[in-house]
Amino acid sequence: MLEDEEVMKIELSEPKPEDGLAVNQLVAENPPLDPNSLYCNLLQTTHFAKTGIAAWHENRLVGFVSGYIKPEQPDTYFLWQVVVGEAARGQGLAKRMIQAIFERTTLANVKWLETTITPDNQASQRLFLSLAQAWEAEVNTSVLFDKQKHFGGQHNSEELYRIGPIAL
Ligand SMILES: CC(C)(COP(=O)(O)OP(=O)(O)OC[C@H]1O[C@@H](n2cnc3c(N)ncnc32)[C@H](O)[C@@H]1OP(=O)(O)O)[C@@H](O)C(=O)NCCC(=O)NCCS
User: Which UniProt keywords apply (predicted)?
Assistant: First the structure.
């Protein structure tokens, strides 16, 4: 963790359609995230803006979270991707962005967070376990998309983390 005076001044905002291109570039620059089509990121910054968040430092996009409320399960927020550019890591930004989404009125009836993580992504595992701890919530894991069955052996299994109930 950085000392206070070293923490970057970062502003969080609801994404705008014009942010889609910067999101596309930030995701592409930060493996192991799967890069998306620009069209996909434009949908995230328009139709899914209320469930996404952008982090800006000196007019540069340094963080982004995409997600949606599950259509058949309105008490569950599915977090699609979280990304923080290398220079902005290690100061609690990913955690702050996700907590800020959960404070929105759009999520007033949401009690669960779901996301998937590959078994080798320790940073992401730590991030979600830390959130669960802060919320005093349980974490259940299971395989959502299997390496062989769903990815034809071309991608690691994606393990589902279901966190909750979340009472803010
Ligand atoms: C994963 C990622 C979003 C974390 O961003 P970040 O802003 O640095 O994370 P935070 O500072 O909010 O850290 C949250 C917690 O995770 C822990 N953590 C973060 N990165 C870590 C790492 N590389 N190794 C171990 N723990 C880590 C922190 O110590 C912190 O724990 P604490 O609250 O108990 O102190 C960032 O590393 C990233 O964008 N990685 C590439 C893309 C990716 O893998 N995204 C997730 C899959 S969708």
Answer: Acyltransferase, Transferase
**Structure confidence by residue, pLDDT tens digits, 23-77:** 999 999 999 999 999 999 999 999 999 999 999 999 999 999 999 999 999 999 9
In the reported structure, the alpha carbon of residue 139 is separated from the centroid of ligand 1 by a whole-number distance in angstroms of 17
Determine the Cα–Cα distance for residues 62 and 48; give it in Å rounded to an integer.
19
Between the alpha carbon of residue 52 and those of residues 78, 119, 125, 143, the distances in Å are 11, 24, 20, 24
Q: Which residues approach ligand 1 with their CB closer than 6 A?
A: 30, 32-33, 81-84, 89-95, 121-124, 126-127, 130
